[in-house]
Design brief:
single chain, alpha/beta, Alkaline Phosphatase, subunit A, 2 domains, nine-stranded mixed β-sheet, two-stranded antiparallel sheet, 15 strands, globular
Amino acid sequence: MNETCAGRWAGRAPGLLTGLLTLLLTVGLTGCGWTPPGRVLVIGIDGATMRLAGRLLEQGRLPNLARIAEAGASGELKSFRPLFSPRIWTTIATGKTPAKHGIAGFTFRDDDDEQHLYLSVHRESAALWNIVSDAGGMVGVVNWWNTYPPEIVRGVLVSDHAKPQRVAELSKLTGVDAEEDGGSPVFPPQWRARVAAAYDATDALTDFANPFEGDHGLARWMRAGVLAKRFYEDEAAVRVALEIEREIRPDLMMVFLPGIDRVSHHLWGTLVPEELYPTALRPTPSQREAGANALRGYYAYTDALIGRLLEPYGPDDLVMVVSDHGFEPGLHLGTLTGIHDSTMAEDGVLFMSGPGVSAGTDTKGVTVNDITPTVLAWLGLPLGEDMDGTVVPFLEHEPIELIPTHDVRAIEYLDTVPSGSEAEILEQLRDLGYIE
């Protein structure tokens, strides 16, 4: 590593541990000649749709998304069925279709018909964080789908298996004990204690109270107790991202918030006429109103979390807020709720602002394939000819360099051993009707 590269790392990440610096010396900063024009923040909000967000924007209830829209582009983001979150979020992170990146859904069955979660090691393409890291950039990744086991990057990666209880358990272990007790869901592993502390913090990040606690007024089958946990999980992800931001100021930050999807699965039916409900499970008018208000409130709460994530970013930075699909009413477990099966739910959302983004632009025609190529073009990094997306038409950028592929180096991971969170993740997927 030359002196310039070493100094750049040391100046940006004074608190990272010696072991990580040793790793970087070994790997080498192959792209240290590249200087990013600014920083990039990509926020994933699972299941958000303009069918609801549009009305809330008109009512002034989403001020942070409104600010991004006013400064840049906003509207729908085209997705592709089947609308399984892992396959789409991996497309967003790679610029490639599932046929190329290899993540087909939530789970797969092996030769013995055993069901397994798709993991990061099953992804067959470089993700945005790999590309930026290999170019010499610093990255922060929090809770993105299919990021366990964590990949070894220049920065911090908190995987989707970093469940609060599990991280707390592992943060108390060191060395061989941690390896025997399960794999670290965090890279570098020494960050487990910091992630656990972020999960344990009690100071609220927003002025919003949890709408699923206390006298919530929801029907029993709307599972208020389950939904209350989603509120704190989204807040925890943002808290971890802010901790990473304070420590390393990454060139690329990617944060995934699943709460809107989880809440919509239970409450979307409260937005449709009551006669669509099965008679035996038809909520009262007050229960329907409580559910609809809670769902709208969760959008507003998510907007407030987005506002916290935006605080460290300025006019020289690129900000993107994306979702993978929308919602529609449908039956699940005998009651009317939210699903995303048909063309009605294909469109997610895209909000984008930063240098080169034309203000007041509609995003119609942009697809989930286009997110990674757009970020790379803005950063001045080459696009892979094997990518299926393109740069959005409303972004002014320097001439694009094309290379055959970014898949030229084997991705390195922490040990691929059970994380200890598999059972909890599978149970959540069953509860939402994704798997049997």
